[in-house]
From TrEMBL:
Transmembrane segment boundaries: none
Origin organism lineage: Bacteria, Bacillati, Actinomycetota, Actinomycetes, Micrococcales
Its biological purpose: Catalyzes the reduction of dTDP-6-deoxy-L-lyxo-4-hexulose to yield dTDP-L-rhamnose.
GO terms, molecular function: dTDP-4-dehydrorhamnose reductase activity
Protein name, per record: dTDP-4-dehydrorhamnose reductase
EC number: 1.1.1.133
Gene3D superfamilies registered for this protein in UniProt: NAD(P)-binding Rossmann-like Domain, UDP-galactose 4-epimerase, domain 1
Organism: Microcella humidisoli
Stretches for region Disordered: 291-313
Domain RmlD-like substrate binding: 3-281
């Protein structure tokens, strides 16, 4: 029976991987139990497993701009250590990566979905560190690394764009959300389920885009989130990206192509509206969040920023 190791087990995607693998032998190690920057610890942890699902990552996109070494250690060297350990153990490594490995060369008006083999041109430290992690993992274990690039994740077990928008909308204040960055909101459950389907199909190497079908902007997604919660979608207003407003640049075009799935004989993730509708019902996002009442003497807190750009990626 296949034995699975999940790294970064405290994270959002890891939770749903554990749920999908609930009836199989799984070791799930949180950061305190396995630090993927430690090559010896990686070797010891991978030993005895057939599949390594690496969800561990330095995911603070803006903070990475100020601490590139930390991002590199976790996102570039970590996957390399795990790939080496997987090669020694005869295991497959699934390395989760990001849409932010792209973004450097899409002139407006010339957008098409990024193919799996499109050149990597990140525009942030985080994206560069993840791109380097892809390269190092594949070089270390060419026959046994699957790169699964995902994006715009939301799920039941973590903070995300969905939780931020729900909390802001529940205050009744209007929300300005960027309408010029395109992508694919993706449920962690679907990423987990499709990844395991890929492995069950016998795939041991390759690149897939583990993002939902379709496309929207952060504004479009925010409206869907607010509508699902039974709140007024008109609260969400379209805004333009303010250059330099955040430490790390965001790609304006993060729509990933899904042809790789057909080549491997496995169906891709479903379109984002259907996935979000099911997620909202399953997670309890069809009701507005309960916001703590403000003390009678204190005025309501103003929004902390004029717009809500995209969350992490
Ligand atoms: N959240 C998103 O929107 C997106 C996430 N991704 C990628 O998907 C994967 C999973 O993301 P999430 O579950 O959202 O991340 P998360 O931030 O919820 O979980 C990541 C986990 O990694 C752990 N971690 C950090 N440094 C570590 C280290 N040195 N050793 C071991 N564990 C460490 C953290 O403690 C955390 O529990 C990551 O590879 C991320 O880069 C890609 C695109 C979008």
């Amino acid at each position: 029976m296949t034995r699975y190791l999940i790294t970064g087990a405290g994270g959002m995607l890891a939770h749903d991987l554990r749920a999908v693998l609930a009836d199989r032998p799984v070791t799930a190690l949180a950061r305190a139990e396995l630090d993927i920057t430690d090559p010896e610890a990686c070797r010891a942890a991978v030993h005895g497993h057939d599949v390594v699902l690496n969800t561990a990552a330095y995911t603070a996109v803006d903070a990475a701009e100020h601490d590139p070494e930390a991002a590199h250690r976790v996102n570039a060297l970590g996957p390399q250590h795990l790939a080496r350990a997987a090669a020694e153990a005869g295991a497959v490594l699934v390395q989760y990566s990001t849409d932010y490995v792209f973004g450097g060369d899409t002139p407006p008006g010339n957008e098409h979905p990024w193919a799996e083999d499109a050149p990597l041109r990140p525009i942030s430290v985080y994206g560069s560190s993840k791109a380097e992690g892809e390269r190092r993992a594949r070089a270390e274990h060419p026959e046994g690394v699957i790169i699964a690039r995902t994006a715009w994740l939301y799920g039941a077990h973590g903070r995300s764009f969905v939780t931020a928008i729900r909390e802001r909308a529940a205050t009744g204040e209007p929300l300005d959300v960027v309408d010029d960055q395109w992508g694919q909101p993706t449920w962690t459950h679907d990423v987990a389920e499709r990844t395991i389907a890929l492995l069950d199909h016998g795939v041991r190497a390759g690149i897939v885009h583990a993002t939902a079908g379709g496309r929207t902007t952060w504004f479009g997604f925010a409206r869907a989130i607010v509508a699902a919660a039974g709140l007024d979608p008109a609260l969400v207003r379209p805004a333009a990206t303010v250059p330099g407003a955040r430490a790390a640049a965001r790609p304006h075009w993060s729509v990933l192509g899904h042809d790789g799935w057909a080549r491997l004989g496995v169906a891709p993730l479903r379109p984002w509206p259907a996935a979000f509708a099911e997620a909202a019902a399953a997670i309890g996002w069809t009701d507005p969040p309960v916001v703590a009442p403000h003390p009678a003497t204190a005025p309501p807190a103003p929004p902390t920023s004029p717009s809500i750009p995209g969350a992490s990626s």
